[in-house]
Amino acid sequence: MMHRRGLLGRLAPLLAALGAPMPSAAADKGPGQRRIFDVHDHGALGDGRTLDSAAIQAAIDAAAAVGGQVLLRGGHRYLVGTLTLRGGIDFHMAKGAELVASTRPEDYAGDVSAPGAPGADTPGALLRALAADDLTISGAGAIDGRSPEFMERYDAENEWWIPRPFRPRLLVLENCARLTIRDLTLRRAPSWTVHLLGCRQVLIERLTILNQLDVPNCDGIDPDHCQDVEIRGCHIVCGDDAIVIKATAGHQAYGASRNIRVHDCRLETQDAGLKIGTETHQDVHDIVFERCQIVRSCRGLCIQVRDAGSVHGVVFRHITFDARHHSAPWWGRGEAISFTAIPRNAATRVGTIRDVLVEDVSGHAENSLRIEGLGGGRVSDIVLRRVDVTLGRRTHYPGGVFDNRPTTVVEALEAHDTPGVSLRHADRITFEACRVRWDREPPAEFSNLLQTQDVTGLDDRGLTGEAAHPHRDPPRLIR
Asked: For residue 278, is the peptide bond before it cis, meaning its omega torsion is within 30 degrees of 0?
């Protein structure tokens, strides 16, 4: 068993590394030291109407032969389908250059009638790469995914768009080492924006992602079975999870997702701001989220274990958040913090969540700080230090619910009152200098400061506050 002192010792090497740079991608040689392959020299027109995929691909292939730079000129709009990037190149989009996604399925590689599992051969990737080591994607240009044109209709009742059968991802990069992505603007992604699968030694910096908030599945950045990744200084607006670390099924050969640091990012989403899961088919560990501002989310900080992999060695530090309810299809019900390990289905042997530090975190939410395991997937050794949460209702959507999705083992949307902190099936949870506050005139479903069920080793002496309705409820309800 790992108590608080043991937890801090377990995380000490990771914390000590916060000030050190991650293993970086190969240093840019700069245009003065690299041969430049202008896409116009290979036949690109950049008029926004003519399909330029073949011309730009020719420039990519030529640059890859010598390790050169592919240049997309400013002031041009390049209409493209799938482009396959190669190792050893700098795919450089100058300021004012724009890649525009073709809306024709036939312009994308693969069997477009059946978008399959993630990977570089996923049908519908606009930019893709496989085993492209020492690849840089850079410049102040933009990529426009044209998401409205991949939508079938707007569902006014549920307040989101219903996609057409085919919609591309923008970047799918698989099994790449020493990968750098910097300075680009990616907008209106119809599906996932940046999917990294089995990549190592990755630097993503100063990326701007501006997606529609009401388009489903347009995640911001998804490191998946990746190692040694740094994501810094990014501004992300998207409908689905902003930055989410995964371990999807079928790719276990790439190993666990580990040694990933996310810092100094500004995030706006209708789902989770900073998240691990829900796909956890392998372990996710040694993760740091630091100095991020979540200006809008359905859940602020989120770990969702639904599969056999476990999550451990995680730090959330110096983060502010705003979590609120959104329309019914969006997962999350405004939880401040949500760490849950719940089997995906009756056949799942679910993993655990353990050794997590939440430090210097504050924000406003419409639902509880929730830590919960189920069955074998208990949650343990969690330290919350200087966590300050204010709970109140500001939206019109129904409250009084815990969102357990995705699962078929328990009720997906569970009717439940809203305590400040809810702990169920957990071990060794420690609060240090933490506080829960309530907005004025809290609704009737708001309840105790703390509720527990089947919790061992709890140290709640550092949790201060009172019940939302002190005349009605005790501050603590221990079961």
From this structure: yes
